[in-house]
Please model this.
Amino acid sequence: MGSAYRQDRQDTVQRVKEAADIVEVIGEHVSLKRAGVNLKGLCPFHSEKTPSFTVRADRQTYHCFGCGEGGDVFSFMMQYHRMAFAEALKELARRYNVPLPEEVGTREELAKARQREALYAANDKAAALYHDQLLHGREAEGARRYLAERGIPAEYISRFRLGYAPEQWDFLAKALTREKIAPAIATEAGLLVAKDNGGHYDRFRQRVLFPIISLTGRVVGFGGRILGEGAPKYLNSPESPIFDKGRTLFGLYQNREAIRHSRKCLVVEGNFDLLSLVVHGIENVVAPLGTALTAPHVRTMRGYCDEAYLLFDGDSAGLKAAMRAVPLFLGEQLAAKVVVLPEKHDPDTFIRAHGKDGLLALLNEAKSLPEFVFDALARQHGLGVEGKSRIVSELRAITTAISDRDLQRTLFAGHFAKKLGLPPDVLLGGDTTPKAAPAPIAKPTGQPRNLTPNEEKLFGFLLVHPECIADFLAAGLEESVSSDLGQEILQALKATPANAAGPERILDLIHGPGKSSLSRLLVTTPVYADEVKNEAAQEMVAWLKKNSLKLRKERLLRDISAAHQSQDEALWVRLVAQKKELDEAIGG
Ligand SMILES: [Zn+2]
Model:
């Protein structure tokens, strides 16, 4: 692994970076609007009310002024899709048709990427086997009939890659062995279950299977519905290094274009509900994976739509789910409405009985989520003194559960307190200390390694005009940089040839918390017109010269005082003479 290897790697990374379009890559998951030279949107990495997530196309950089996340197209892929660097590189290379000569990455990155790749491959193979089984297997006759009875045409069976796991303990275990997929990998992927006495058996048996696809198009897990009687009725893959239920939504991959296009996202509970809606022409729909909605789910949706429609059952379980969802949607600033289905209906039975138009009519009547919750509570308890106090205690249970999220909690309490005509403190669980009152939006936490204001100005300029670095160094740049991060950036700038690619290249050389300061500089530093640029450069060089004289004088004064203390008269005389020279230089 000599420097030739490193050079290769650097070249490949650079080629992929130049080919990739950061606005396109991020714009797929975040709604971006133009704001001057930048694009802005709501941050996919933290909850916020007003957009502070900024993408700058000419520098191929993004930065969030709310939480400080920032970087280049690779960091975005790694943060958003939770990929290792090697995976992000491979994915972008594939997408933008850049040939990868060989595997690129450190040994650790490669090991991590290989392990995840093996899990994807096992899932992908299983999906193919199950799909083939559903289409052609003799044992799948019942499953095919079941899907036909539920009105799912062949076209949708292949679009969603539906499958069937036959009623056998070793159908997949045997098939994967033939495919040379290690049982340990299949077990980690959740496809097989290890027996206590050694050996493995299939997790999914006698089930219609829905592959769950990540936003990068890979199979990360399965949801399975039992065919006939048996328990549990629904079974999902367990979580794995590639499958996080709290972040994944079934159907988002297949339906994302429809959601983005309509700016609305319907949320149903079951996979079959989702499929049925799609079959009937309503394609902007997702389903969580057997878990309650989470803030990351809502934040992900927010990147694709302006409004969510929750299709809940009208019973008390639906009300509880709606109550729990209120703070999530308030916190993520995504408008949500509740669609109440007539009694004894779920989305699947409803659309089969009333069709697309019937459901669209229900959507039109949908109530906003907080209104829905309030009205339901008011109906249940009344708005007398007694009723209000019952409502308060129900709502308090929710605020307590979200007490660690200031923004959600305060918005939630504020909203309902107003409706009840009570002070918000009443809903904040009896904790009336002022601490809970104003909701600060996450601010970047204090970074000890921050740049000084002068360093910000100097480096902001040098990032865009690296050709000026020689003049700046000659004027004493090194002396004027006092922060650790400043020194780090300076070394990186010195190591980068002035004409190398764009200023964002420097992002590759800075790691850790400094990356955030750097991405911020990259999105904020203006482009200087040539004449302004020269003027600015001269101004900065002049300041650097003056500052380095000032620093030298400070050092001399300290040395003079030390010489005086130690009664070293010869040194003292010499230093005082130097100071006199320096004073003349500063004065003149
Ligand atoms: Zn953020």
Notes: The chain has four domains: 3-105, 107-243, 382-436, 453-587. Residues 116 and 159 are 25 Å apart (CA to CA).
